[in-house]
Amino acid sequence: MAEVLHTDICVIGGGSGGLSVAAGAVQMGARVVLVEGAAMGGDCLNHGCVPSKALIAAAHAAHAMGAGGPFGVAPVAPEIDRTAVRDHVARVIAGIAPHDSVERFEGLGVRVIRDWARFTDPREVVAGGLRIRARRFVIATGSTPAIPPVPGLAQVPYLTNETVFGLAVRPFHLIVLGGGPIGMEMAQAHRRLGSRVTVIEAGRPLAREEPELAAIVLERLRAEGVEVIEGTAITAVAGTEGALNVTLADGRRVAGSHLLVAAGRRPALERLGLEAAGIAHTDAGVTVDARLRTTNRRAYAIGDAAGQGQFTHLAGYHAGIVIRSAVLGLPARVRTDHIPRATYTDPELAHVGLTEAEARARFGDRVEVVTFPFADNDRARATLRTDGMVKLVIHRGRPIGAGIAGPQAGELIAPWSLAIAQRLRLSAMAGVVLPYPTLAEVGKRAAGAYFSPKLFGNAPLKRVVRLVQRLLP
Ligand SMILES: Cc1cc2nc3c(=O)[nH]c(=O)nc-3n(C[C@H](O)[C@H](O)[C@H](O)COP(=O)(O)OP(=O)(O)OC[C@H]3O[C@@H](n4cnc5c(N)ncnc54)[C@H](O)[C@@H]3O)c2cc1C
Ligand SMILES: NC(=O)c1ccc[n+]([C@@H]2O[C@H](COP(=O)([O-])OP(=O)(O)OC[C@H]3O[C@@H](n4cnc5c(N)ncnc54)[C@H](O)[C@@H]3O)[C@@H](O)[C@H]2O)c1
Questions:
Q1: Residue 2 DSSP one-character state
Q2: Of 110, 117, 108, which is closest to residue 37 (Cα–Cα)?
Q3: What distance in Å separates the CA atoms of residue 319 and residue 223, rounded to the nearest whole number?
Q4: Nearest 5°: CA angle at 319, between 53 and 270?
Q5: Which ligand has its closest atom nearest to the C-alpha of 161?
Q6: Which of 32, 31, 38, 30 is nearest to 13 (CA)?
Q7: How many Cβ atoms are within 10 Å of 135's Cβ, its own excluded?
């Protein structure tokens, strides 16, 4: 008979969400068991955010060597050692790994079990030869690459986010299936590292984003030589290692050396035995309420497994909600309107709140939109990075959506995340004083663009000003 382990909180999955719950809960005094079946740190550290941003940084360095011409700096062709690039990515992961390690978590007082967890009944999980009975369970099992049912795909060697960062060779011609954030980030990075790249997207690339902002990114990718075929799906795949052929819905064929499948994600639930615990789920993820509680009152689901979006910062935010609820007993509820997202292409693409289309569907004609181009920002001009735009969606004097395409958009979205989270008035964003010359001024100027027509060219205001000027001593 297996040993029974009693605990307050059992966290299943040691990725972005699960580690945050475990660290927070144990340091507040709860007894915590953490079960992780693969590498500590989850997708973000091992196969996602961290390696992708490290690869993008290497690609940026390569691109910069050929981009100095307009500054009077003669471009040179970079010599790229793909083994060294792969090692750089691995070193970045290894540098962060201690923060997510078994040793650190055991040092905090968490009991870490390295195994796959499975529910056997509504209040018991088995893992590592133990029966874990917990007051509360937190399902934080993340997601895995969705592999579309394309004929022939299962028979060819293809890459996913779980294998692409281990490549030590330069793909001669990388075909990317899917033009979402993963597909586009990887397409540009590989192009800059010397591969020919073709992205094939069934619908619109970066479809979730404001179309005019996505268009800025797409134009740049195409200008760098990434071929983007949109509006047609891959319907068949054939070939062997190094010699692959894909057939498109419109009959076209594309031949390439490697294929990266970036067709979305599916929640990693299959190992969990959710039925035994009475936990309902759909293809999108575990069914949760506004407090992230599942249909089993002892269990919560967070992060990618909860199917409400796939971002590390969302998983971290979910963790905070669960800590307040399961550790402190407070009735914390999730908000979704203030969660930002960024895609780390160059230029970057970032958004928080509603898009214009979403806002119009909700508020109709009461929505106002202003835009401001990076071309009118002095820092962008000085650095020759004028390809970009800020787009603000405004309702009753408050920003309810902000999108940015441009250099450092992922950083520049920060004040808008605060503004939307705190429901600040747009006047606060227009009135802030920022250092000159910074890219951050594009946000302030966009907010100012909303007020300019109301202040300048306003006939009643002009009459008041003339009167004041007559009366002033
Ligand atoms: C290529 C790529 C790039 C990305 N870039 C970004 C980015 O720049 N910014 C961003 O915010 N997000 C990014 N993401 C998304 C981000 O990685 C995820 O949203 C995040 O990792 C989700 O955290 P999580 O805790 O829900 O799951 P994960 O971090 O995936 O952790 C889940 C863990 O649970 C474990 N597990 C699963 N089942 C079981 C079980 N039955 N028992 C025990 N353990 C189990 C898994 O092994 C895994 O370690 C990217 C994703 C990819 C694929
Ligand atoms: N910077 C970031 O924060 C970041 C980066 C990468 C990933 N992520 C997260 O990971 C999630 C998944 O990203 P993703 O890019 O894999 O998924 P996605 O769902 O955003 O995009 C997948 C695309 O593949 C297309 N597709 C599917 N089948 C196809 C076929 N047979 N032929 C051609 N196209 C096909 C779909 O139309 C879709 O546009 C993102 O939504 C995001 O939440 C975040």
A1: P
A2: 117
A3: 41
A4: 80
A5: 1
A6: 38
A7: 14
**Euclidean distance between CA atoms 182 and 247, whole angstroms:** 21
Q: Which of 16, 162, 177, 182 to mutate to test the pocket of ligand 2 (most atoms within 8 A of CB)?
A: 182
The ligand 1 site (C-beta within 6 Å) comprises 12-18, 35-38, 42-44, 47-49, 52, 116-117, 140-142, 161, 182, 268, 271-272, 303-305, 310-313, 315, 344
The two structure tokens encoding residue 328: 């402190």
Pocket around ligand 2 at a 6 A CB cut-off = 148, 150, 177-183, 185, 200-203, 207, 233-234, 262-265, 310-311, 341-344
Q: Looking at residue 455, what is its pLDDT?
A: 84
Whether a cis peptide bond, with omega within 30° of 0, leads into 347 is: yes
Contacts of 235 (CB under 8 A, 6+ apart): 150, 151, 247, 248, 249
Give pLDDT tens digits for 281-320.
Answer: 999 999 999 999 999 999 999 999 999 999 999 999 999 9
Cβ partners under 8 Å of residue 49, min gap 6: 312
C-alpha 169, offset from chain centre: 27
368 bridge partner residues: 394
Ligand 1 mean position, distance from CA 93 (Å) = 14
1 pLDDT higher than 80 = no
